Amino acid sequence: MPSADVTTVMIAAVFFSVGLNTLVKANLSSGMSNFVFVAYSNLFGFCFLLTATTLRYRSRSPPPLNNSIVFRAFLLGFFGVFIQTLFYIGLGYGSPTLSSATEDLIPAFTFIIAVVFRMEKLDLKLRSCQAKTIGTVVSIAGALTVTLYKGLPITSDVIRNNIFLSSQQSQWLLGGCILSTATFTASLLIVIQTWTIKDYPEELMLITIATSFSLFLSFLVAFIAEKNPKAWILKPDMELVCIFCNAIITVCTRGVVDAWACRKMGAVYVAMFSPLGIVFALVMGIIFLGETLYLGSVIGSAVIAIGFYSVSWGQAEEENKTSEKDGAYGIIPSSESALLLHTSKDTMIT
C-alpha cells in the first residue's frame, strides 16, 4: 500500500485519539467515574477483540502458549490498567493538551529504559547517539515547561481572580505529574511488549489475552475504589458513547493501526506522528471545551516536538547505518538465517 495511504491512516488515528481525549475530558468534568469508565472500556474492548480473534483463527489454530508468554501477557494487562487509570485521573485534573504533551515523552523515556536494560547502546561519539541523548533531555525539559509553567493566557479575555488561578495551577501541576507517571509506565510497557512479541509474534492473540487480564484487574480496582453504586448504571447518554468510543479507538483499533503502520513503514515513521497530537489537542480544547490557551503550553509543546524529532532522527540514522552495513557484508536476514540453520541441522542428522 502506498505511503500516502499509511500517512492518511496514521493522521486519522492521532486525530481520533485526541478527539476521544477531548470527549472524555468533557464527561469527566460532568462527574463520570474514572474507575468505572476504565472497567467498562476494557469489557467492551475485550468483547470486540475476542470476536476478531475468533474470526481470525477460525480456520487455523494459533501458536501454542507457554507459561512465560502468559506471565508477560499478565504484566501487559496489569500495566495497561495502571496506565489507563492514571491517564484518565490526570486528564481530569489537566487537559487533552497536557496529556498529548506528556505522551510525546514516551520515546525519550523508552530510550532511557532501553539504555538501562542494555537494549540500546550509549556511545556519545556517534552523532546519532548524541542526537537521541540531547533530544531526550530537551523533551523532558519541554514536558516540565508545560507542566510547571502556564504563563500568560493567549486566547481568553476573561479576568479571573488570584484564588481561582492558584487552584487551577495546582490542579494542572498534579495532572502533569500523574500523566508523566502514566507516560513512564507506558514506556516500560512498550519494552515488555517488544520483548514478548519477539517470542510470540501474534499481536492480535497477545493483545486479546492481555486485555482479558486488564478486564479482571480493572473491575477489581473499580469495585474497591468506586463507592457510589449509581456510578455503575449505564444510561443511553454521552457517557455510554464515550465508553464505546474508548473501547474501539484506544483498547482495540489504535494498537492494531500502529502495528500495521510499523509493519508497512517502520517504527520511526509511526513515531513521527506523535507531535501532531499536541496541535489537534490545542485546537479541540479551545473549540470544544472552551479552554484557555496558555503561553507555557505553546512553548513547552514546541520544545517537546524539537526534542522528539531529534530522537527520531538519531534512531533513523542508526537504522540506515545498520542496513548499509548489512547490505555491504551480505548479511542474511534473521528469518532466512534461521531457515538455513534449521536445514543444516536436518542435513547433519541425516
Automatic annotation (TrEMBL):
One GO cellular component this record assigns the protein to is: membrane
Q: In this protein, which residues make up the domain named EamA?
A: 10-147, 175-312
Where exactly are the transmembrane stretches of this chain? 7-24, 36-57, 69-93, 134-152, 172-192, 204-225, 237-257, 269-288, 294-311
Q: Where in the cell is it found?
A: Membrane
Q: Which InterPro entries match?
A: EamA_dom (IPR000620), EmrE-like (IPR037185), WAT1-related (IPR030184)
Q: Which UniProt keywords apply?
A: Membrane, Transmembrane, Transmembrane helix
Q: Name one GO molecular function term.
A: transmembrane transporter activity
Q: Does the keyword Transmembrane helix apply?
A: yes
**How the protein sits in the membrane?**
Multi-pass membrane protein
Q: Domain of life here? A: Eukaryota
Q: Which family does it belong to?
A: Belongs to the drug/metabolite transporter (DMT) superfamily. Plant drug/metabolite exporter (P-DME) (TC 2.A.7.4) family.
Its name, as the record gives it, is WAT1-related protein
Lineage, highest ranks first: Eukaryota, Viridiplantae, Streptophyta, Embryophyta, Tracheophyta
